[in-house]
Amino acid sequence: MFSKHPKGLIAAALANLGERFGFYTMMAILVLFLQAKFGLNGKDAGLIYATFYFSIYILALVGGIIADKTRNYKGTIMAGIILMAVGYLILAIPTQTPVLHKTLMLVVSCFGLLVIAFGNGLFKGNLQALVGQMYDNPQYASMRDSGFSLFYMFINIGAIFAPLAAIGVRSWWLGNFGYNYDADLPALCHGHLQGNLSEQAYNKFQELAGQASSAPVSDYSYFAKDYLNVFTTGFHYAFAIAIIAMIVSLVIYIVNKRNFPDPSKKEQAKSGETAGVEMDVQEVKQRILALFAVFGVVIFFWFSFHQNGLTLTFFAKEYTDLNLLGMPITAELFQSLNPFFVVCLTPLIMAIFASQRRRGVEPSTPKKIAIGMGIAALAFVVMAVGSYFSNLPMHKEIIEMGTSPIKVTPWLLIITYLILTVAELYISPLGISFVSKVAPPKYQGIMQGGWLGATAIGNQLLFIGAVLYEAIPIWLTWTIFVVACCISMFTMLFMLKWLEKVAK
Description:
The chain is mostly helical. It contains 20 helices and two strands.
């Protein structure tokens, strides 16, 4: 599997494990943490979530500019790892819940998120650029797409365990205080303390409080405060696990640093060996235009795909029966599905591409991306159909009742995540590969940042999903994402011949 790939590929992927671990920790628990810690509604928590994920990717553009200007890719990457660890440390320090100085503590938390995002910006795009440069060697050029697929598979190994670690730490901390996990309780606790529960919701709160506490509950206000404090402290400690993962990544990166390509030396060697030979200005222009066209299209995909950490997490918490094959599960657990499927399905997808390559029918990279967008639309069709025929109540109705009277099977989300992962494998690693192939050599870092910048814009639009989730029937929310993915697919198909020509 690795014999035809450069030796530095696996080392680079392993150095990326910590970033993925932290990323999926945030995807699993960030909106749930914000709601439990600060009592935020879905729209406000969604806005912070969307802005955080926007910042992660838009700052990759800044990181690319810094690395391209300084030609110090390796130092920029290492600084990013350190900054991410500092950001997780800020979030990991436990503070009292319910929060006494809500605005101040929310600002502190958002500052921690900003530090993580800036560190990620220095790290993410530049490491991807280094991987792309490994395949500039003619010996490995034909394996670029499969190389990025392998890279993508290995970095997701860390992501599998992130939600499991977060769940384990949170549940362990709850158990130490004689409490059990209940997805509906944090919102009900906040509602009780604020005095805005309906009679039906208050009765539900009392019922769930009695089930979650190992001791009889006599003072429901004390229970609400204590449960929230213990619940969110467990989340704080879950962020601390991400620090350990970042340290592991830092060690792996330092040990293997000298084995990675050095773009500055490569640039000097190239100028010495090919003096007077430069890429034609018109070709540079065409390549950059093609990249920006793709960047614009994938905005719609990321706007839909990254709902897995927002509205799909809300759906898991509020509409899903958290029992699977007779075993209790948690809302956060679903975030392990995507990286698990990435690791399991990557060899299969690579085998399909290899078979197509042998028969001379392998789709071009732009066509693979278009296919992936169509597959993503199918995933949200599953959610829309499942939600419609389950006759799920609107969000405002479950707030009134304290919980949804209808809970759907967890298999609905499992199947959706499976299909979304297949779509991701056709888009994300191949999109990175496309950028590394098409970007002019002196713009490698900034163009990788541009890909991530497009992802950033799609992520900033995520909050629209949270607004729709609370305002319209849930099946109609998923239908909006079907439309967004279809727009992406048909636009890519419209540009296909031009993109294929530029990529040759």
